[in-house]
Specification:
Number of strands: 11
Largest sheet: 7 strands, mixed
Length: 124
């Protein structure tokens, strides 16, 4: 099982970016999905999360500017980032709770998987 993130880049303040993250491999189910970010010298923080049913949660600093969504058929989560600020610059990571499929009769064992980070740079 792998998580592959993409979509980072450099934008000016006020601009927009869209991140994507896709789970692949032998998967029984993908449950909660989320985006985190970590800026240099700071702790990793939750940006937004979404359940398999579509319920969302946002960090206070991005609420109203960022939107998380998912496509369950594609095992993909998105993060639409609008009105970006220099303080949004960070390495963005996706995380998903995934139950791998190990074959007939295998146990249902969901666990956390992390994607590689994708860099977001915002210039003032």
């Amino acid at each position: 099982v792998q998580l592959q993130a993409s979509g980072g880049g450099s934008v000016q303040a006020g601009g927009s970016l869209r991140l994507s993250c896709t789970a692949s491999g032998d998967i029984f189910s993908v449950n909660d999905m989320a985006w985190y970010r970590q800026a240099p010298g700071k702790e990793r923080e939750l940006v937004a999360s979404i359940t398999s049913g579509g319920s969302t949660n946002y960090g206070d600093s991005v609420n109203g500017r960022f939107t998380i969504s998912r496509d369950n058929a594609r095992n993909t989560v998105y993060l639409e980032m609008n009105r970006l600020k220099p303080e949004d610059a960070a390495l963005y990571y996706c995380k998903a709770v995934i139950a791998p499929y190990y074959g007939p009769g295998s146990k249902y064992l969901p666990k956390d998987y992390w994607g590689q980070g994708t860099q977001v740079t915002v210039s003032s």
